[in-house]
Predict the structure.
Amino acid sequence: MERIKRILVANRGEIAIRVLRAASELGIRTITVFTYEDRYSLHRFKADEAYQIGENDDPLKPYLDIEEILRIAKANQADAIHPGYGFLSENLRFASRCAEEGVIFIGPRPDVMAALGDKVSSKVIARNCQVPVIEDNQVRLTDGALATAEALRIGLPVILKASAGGGGRGMRVIRQMEEMETAFSEARREAGNAFGDDTIFMEKFIDNPKHIEVQVLGDQYGNIVHLFERDCSVQRRFQKVVEIAPAPGLSQAAREKLCRYAVDIAAHVRYSNAGTVEFLVDAHENIYFIEVNPRIQVEHTVTEAVTGIDLVRSQILIADGERLDSPSIGIASQESLRCQGFAIQCRITTEDPLQNFKPDYGTLIAYRHAGGNGIRLDEGSCYQGVKVSPFFDSMLVKITANGGSLEEAAKRMFRALTEFRIRGVKTNIPFLENVIRHPVFVAGQCTVQFFNNHPELFNISTKQDRGTRILKYLADVMVNGHPDVQNQDPKKVFQPGKIPHFDKGK
């Protein structure tokens, strides 16, 4: 490493741990931040140094405090900051402030973030690159009345989206005009809370497409490659649940178009570092650009599994000035990259599918994870006794399974899911098991309406959980006594039983 000797990770959970591990492998000293609510989180203990940010009664917002994070970085001589995903990862002001303070932001340059991180301006670039886009609003949406006027021009259904971030936050589908005022207010509020920017834009809503994204990687010298595509169609409320690489069920012509479009957009702005270009593909394989995520994605693990490229390690090396074709990164050219087999990622969350995926929280009284050939786990704070907080994302662990075919990867994923034992909070594991075994999924035919079109996915049998019930019973007896032997009469004397004499000779 030439410039980066100390790195601060401005995030939490499994992505913070992922970055900390990559940095440690490169011999970089690691620093992280945590809130009081996160004081027992594992990302704090995986770093060489960890510092609390915010007051004790402020569990979440300190992770969005740009100046406090920069103060910690400067006070502890951090050369670079990795933002992970979510929080400040797509925040232009954060990237700009890092540049002003002489701290390397591990991501694209501020001018690139300004051009692509904003979903509205990124569509202008897509049009300039002759990439097809979806009809959208032509005026800034500052209130419900303007949003209603634009929806009338575009035609229902439309979708509202947060301009500054993804993950389903700030998204609302409008199918009837009377829904607009409430939906617009909710979307703005949700976007502001999640990303610190409540800018909302509108697009024509495409019914029942596939959601396909292309991973791109560029260095600081104009070299850009794609690392093939991922299918992210299995999603709920615009949040991805299961991802596949490469995308099954696409023609070779569609794959080539998607990857070419992604590289063209990235090359137009001389993109550097890792990013994802996202598209919708309809039943006739018409392709529509939707956005660029100028950061690492939750689902980057499936791309790593099928290409052998360590994306987070590459991010750090690129920020340090390495070229893609350097021995450290090892991408000689686009033609040198190969996609081998299939990989699937599932996100285990503390949500109850039978209660409309209501998040659950509490204490994990038991945690046993999976393993074995072709299985990778990216865990946050998962161990017996950990408290699942209501203030943070409900994801516990990501499982990535790979195999020679989609069917083989699915069978391996199902086996891993059945090995998990998580007790104390409800999880979506039974639902994921139904998804992975569904014939539509195994055939690679899922669209974004997969959950809505297949209600049988919610036919979930309740687990007996005999082990936990027995443990609870024994603990209750040890503390409170057995209900049948309480209030014993101290006057009664229990004598040992008399064994009758037995004469062997008779």
Residues 252-268 form the longest helix (17 residues). The radius of gyration is 26 Å. The chain has three domains: 6-106, 135-204, 210-458.
